[in-house]
Amino acid sequence: MERFLDRIKSPDDLKKIPIGDLPLLAKEIRKRIIDVVSKTGGHLASSLGAVELAISLHYCFDMPRDKIIWDVGHQSYPHKILTGRADTFDTLRQLGGISGFPSRGESEYDIFTCGHSATSISTALGLSCARDLKSEAWKVIAVIGDASLANGMALEALNHAGHLRKDLVVVLNDNELSISRSVGALARYLNRIMTNPLYNRVRRQMQILVKRIPVFGFKTFRTARKLEEALKNLLIPGMFFEGFGFRYFGPIDGHDINGLITTFRNLRALREPIIVHVITKKGKGYRFAEERPSFFHSVQPFEIDTGKLLDRKVTKSFTEIFSDKIVELARKDAKIVAITAAMPDGTGLSRFSQEFPNRFYDVGIAEGHAISFSAGLAQQGFKPIIAIYSTFLQRGYDQIMHDVSLQNLPVIFCIDRAGIVGEDGPTHHGVFDIAYLRHIPNLVIMAPRDGFELEAMLEVAVTLKRPVAIRYPKGDCQSHLSGSSFHKIELGKSELLREGNDIAIFAIGNMVSIAIKVADLLSPDGIQATVVNSRFVKPLDKDIIEDVTRRIKRVVTLEEGIARGGFGSAILEFFERENIKGVKVERIGLPDHFIAHGKREELLKEYHLTADEICETIKKEFFEK
After folding, report:
1. SS3 label, residue 335
2. Half-sphere exposure (Cβ direction) of 191: Cα atoms closer than 13 Å
3. Do residues 364 and 150 lie in contact, with contact meaning Cβ atoms separated by under 8 Å?
4. Residue positions annotated with a catalytic role
5. Where in the chain is the domain with CATH 3.40.50.920?
6. SS3 sequence, 450-496?
7. How far is CA 328 from CA 323, 324, 356, 459, 468, in A?
8. Residue 227: pLDDT band with limits 50, 70, 90
9. What rounded mean pLDDT belongs to the chain?
10. What backbone torsions phi and psi does residue 291 show, to the nearest 5 degrees?
11. Contact between 404 and 375 (Cβ < 8 Å)
């Protein structure tokens, strides 16, 4: 029997399906998403919760003439399936396949490439203004989650949109979760609207009355509207959204396709800022995702029947080592506090939050606020450790500079997912942090080669009375070097791992293990390499660099980050500053463009960062005539 999904090559095909059959289509889409993500990994729970919403939006609006922007984009899998990518959906997040997020280069239905939260209302408002400047007529819809709405940028955009009074639809997809459970006053406010039985009961009566307007006339309509407004004033504190200048519709069951379609069809004729408050269940339709929505937010390949991960790693990840170590340090030092921006599980702070609930702060999706909040704690003598992904730390750049480094406050930035992160792609790779942090005064920047060194760096960091950044990669610590063990390190001191007279390799972070492999590959060709585990991007180890380059005039720098402005650039600048001449330097890192999605091993090969390819580069640049 032909599936409904087989008929859909574009939203036009979707509109040919009777409304009564759309719930069956929703089941087919959910099954397709679960089948694929169980093999590829991906953002499962969010996309399962947005199936009916995606169907209803594409059923009621005329995409791509109308524009839809999915905030963050991790809930956009059903949108992709409905817009001509059902046949290629099994290539999700694979090298050369379709992206796990909206991607401009992939489809005309993806208006923006996105992967960070709270940007959708701003970009949607810009689209609305551009439409009006061109005297065109199409709708703009921004879909944003309840956690993203609490971000400062989203609130700024609401304020501006309400002021401009543009024709704009904001769909608030409210599942009470960001990645973990949403926090903050706005989350509590939304929950009060959703659960207030008196408001919803009287509101339903108002809707019934208004439907009978032709019988009672315009005067009754005005009375009904006044009653509804009075009800809102009575039961909704501050009339939050309408105070911003938006018409508020909701809450609406986000899994009731009939109700969604009726609502969207009715508001198409309105030409003002509108909020449609939709209540959805994260993980809807897959029991294990419904029970553990945070775990299945971004999940590795798993068994559909059991919900268990297929790849059970044996060694600990850098994140797990960080998690254990920060708890150990906090037991000894009551001044240590921990901060996350809505990611206690992903950053490894859940254990800390359980053991030290009074010293743990989840600020929600508000990275800039998290950093300035940490600065306030540091100013009063505490030792804030803020755990954050490299790609999200970008969102607090000014706060790092102005509120932390300018004040020279001892805030410790534990930068997870530094380097290539794999299948999440260009919005999530942590490849820019060295370049955007290195030039900030007062800031110490470290990168461990393995888990032992991460522990040692944390021990050093909590003793320093200045800002510190420690960057470490996603994944396990199988990169431990032979004979590696825990030993203390000193500020600004690197480690000489191997000595040779032909070439010097200065490596940082998880590229140190690759540097050792490179040295092994060069040795049979008679090329003996000195290998330095640099440990510090800032300050550099002046003594060891000068000592090595007195006798070796060929230098290679290795880093898993953008080469321009990165660790290798710091070495070059050191040579210039110290007037060290006659040294030929080859900087090896990532190129000056956004990195595609794919498995980490595939991307290292794609960008010539494997040991074999680095070895060939060295021989070509230094030893071939």
Report:
1. coil
2. 12
3. yes
4. 282, 367, 395
5. 496-623
6. CHHHHHHHHHHHCCCCCCEEEECCCCECCCCCCCCCCCCCCCCCCEE
7. 9, 6, 11, 10, 19
8. low
9. 89
10. -75, -30
11. yes
Q: What is the pLDDT of residue 432?
A: 96
Q: Which amino acid is at 234?
A: L
Residue 195 neighbours by CB under 8 Å, 6+ apart: none
What is the torsion angle, in degrees rounded to the nearest 10, for the CA atoms of residue 582, residue 583, residue 584 and residue 587?
A: -150
| Residue whose token pair is 């070495």 | 571
Distance separating alpha carbons of residues 528 and 536, to the nearest angstrom: 24
Predicted confidence band of residue 201 (pLDDT cuts 50, 70, 90) = low
* Portions of the chain given CATH number 3.40.50.970: 5-196+236-291, 318-471
Amino acid at 114: C
Radius of gyration, CA atoms only, the chain: 27
Q: What count of Cα atoms within 13 Å lies in the side-chain half-sphere of residue 620?
A: 7
Q: Are 69 and 42 in contact (CB under 8 A)?
A: no
Please answer whether residues 609 and 566 qualify as being in contact, where contact means their C-beta atoms are separated by less than 8 angstroms: no
CA distance 44 to 21: 24
Digit-coded pLDDT (tens) for 231-289 = 555 445 337 788 888 988 888 899 999 999 999 999 999 999 999 999 999 999 999 99
Q: How far, in Å, CA of 489 to CA of 459, rounded?
A: 9
Residue keyed to tokens 């996603």? 474
CATH topology (fold) of 496-623: Rossmann fold (3.40.50)
CATH class of 5-196+236-291: alpha beta
- 380-420: pLDDT as tens digits: 999 999 999 999 999 999 999 999 999 999 999 999 999 99
Residue 562 DSSP symbol: E
**Domain covering 318-471 in this structure, CATH number:** 3.40.50.970
Query: Does the structure show a pLDDT above 50 at 115?
Result: yes
